[in-house]
Write a structure and sequence with these properties.
Blueprint lengths: L5 E6 L9 H11 L3 H4 L4 E6 L7 H14 L3 E6 L9 H10 L4 H4 L3 E2 L4 E6 L6 E5 H5 L2 E7 L14 H8 L2 H8 L7 H15 L2 E9 L5 E7 L4 H15 L7 E7 L13 H4 L14 E7 L18 E3 H4 L4 H11 L9 E3 L2 H10 L11 E4 L7 E5 L3 H5 L4 E8 L13
Parallel strand pairs: 2-3, 2-7, 3-4, 7-8, 10-11, 10-14, 11-12, 12-13
Antiparallel strand pairs: 1-15, 1-16, 5-6, 8-9, 14-15
């Protein structure tokens, strides 16, 4: 098959950036005047999530140090729903991979599956669970990134409220919320978080927003009474900074790799324009006829949740799948389509040619193809020749390498540089 020629393209993304986000985190907490709530040996639980947030290990460490400085006893507790297989060992492994260990943090780091039932939400009658360590602590500081969710749209999506309502609920909390339809999740998370705030002593939150280069753009310290309003505001800003593939329509989108370190679904649904949820209509834009993913990151530890968002993949990706951890996500959320294995080929070249063949091009060399690293880093990409008119008309795009051929090694896998 005659494949299109490609050009290397740089995308210029908005780049607000904090020079010292670690120091900023503590300065934001100091503004909240928490000394009386932390001093005199009080045990303060810091929520430890599963996301690869920029500088998160350093932020946890500095917050723990600050708690000690004003007389408290910090402890970092797992708050990641069913991630890590929902087990203490799996959750501690995720935290350790993020650099969050007792040796590095200088305080206890607890991975646990222990929860307590706090009650039910008033409207939806959903069971509200919370980590036992958070219930027993003298105070809780919630730390999370605010961003668009990969399964629903609401005024508040992924952030401090989700950490309270689902992260701290661990596996039972994740099961509880996903027992309802996806269209209700936003409202349910809000109610869950309010029950948790009523029942345990949440003293503060640190809300983080990142730019499209995975750098910290904003850190804000918030009191619990501010969470609802301020998270909605920060989500709007996060969506303004969220990177995207700069084409609304493609014949084929190729991803070098997917992974839990890039998105909870391996590939960000907001970027590829696919939900793959039974009964939920797919987005109008972007519209990509075929999506191919070529590999799974080592940081995913075999968790390929979201692989079903693609149409084609490689044998090397499939051979890395840990089906137990991958299917746990699907069984918890009910989003079973996301766990289905795409058409699997032996090489990258076979994936690309097979995907184009299914589109029945008379001249496949004229196909609109965009080849990206993953759905998180979208500052550079390769684009087929057919996209040049759109590239030249877009002031945020610049061609940095002229027309090239797709290059493959002796195993017919793509040569990236």
């Amino acid at each position: 098959m005659q494949l299109p020629k490609i050009v290397k393209v740089r995308q210029i993304l908005p780049r607000p950036k904090l020079e010292d986000p670690v120091s900023e985190a503590v300065e934001e907490l100091k503004k909240l005047k928490l000394d009386d709530k932390i001093s005199n040996g009080k045990v303060i639980a810091i929520t430890g999530g599963s996301r690869g947030i920029a500088n998160i290990d350093k932020i946890y460490k500095r917050v723990a140090s600050y708690i000690k400085e004003i007389g408290g006893n910090p402890v970092i507790i797992s708050a990641m729903g069913s991630h890590g297989g929902g087990t203490p060992e799996g959750q501690k492994e995720i935290l350790a991979h993020l650099g969050v260990t007792e040796e590095e943090m200088g305080c206890p780091v607890i991975g646990s599956s222990d929860v307590e039932l706090l009650g039910k939400t008033p409207t939806h009658s959903i069971d509200v669970y919370c980590a036992k360590e958070a219930v027993e602590a003298d105070g809780v500081i919630v730390i999370n990134r605010v961003k668009a969710h990969t399964a629903f749209r609401a005024p508040r999506e992924s952030g401090l409220l989700k950490m309270l309502g689902i992260g701290l609920g661990r596996a039972p909390g994740a099961d509880s919320i996903h027992s309802r339809g996806v269209e209700e999740i936003g409202d349910i998370i809000l109610e869950l978080s309010r029950v948790v705030r009523d029942q345990i002593n949440v003293i503060a939150g640190l809300a983080i927003v990142e730019n499209g280069y995975e750098e910290t753009a904003v850190i804000e310290g918030l009191l619990p009474s501010q969470f609802d309003e301020e998270e909605a505001r920060l989500l709007k800003y996060a969506k303004e900074l969220m990177p995207a593939v700069p084409f609304e329509e493609l014949d084929l989108l190729i991803l070098d790799e997917m992974g839990k370190n890039y998105s909870g679904t391996g590939m960000d649904t907001n970027v590829i324009g696919r939900w793959r949820i039974h009964g939920v209509e797919e987005p109008d834009r972007p519209r990509y006829q075929r999506v191919a993913v070529l590999d799974l990151t080592e940081a995913s530890h075999g968790n390929a949740n979201g692989v079903g968002l693609a149409d084609f993949t490689t044998r090397r990706l499939v051979d890395k799948i840990d089906y137990k951890s991958s299917y746990l996500n699907c069984l918890t959320t009910g989003f079973v389509l996301r766990g289905m294995i795409p058409v699997t080929m032996n090489s990258d070249k076979e994936v690309i040619e097979s995907a184009l063949k299914t589109l029945h091009f008379a001249e496949p060399e004229k196909a609109k193809i965009c080849w990206i690293k993953n759905t998180l880093f979208l500052d550079e990409m390769y684009c087929s020749e057919a996209l040049l008119p759109e590239i030249n008309a877009n002031k945020t795009l610049e061609v940095i390498e002229d027309l090239l051929e797709f290059r493959f090694d002796n195993k017919d896998n793509l040569i990236k540089e």
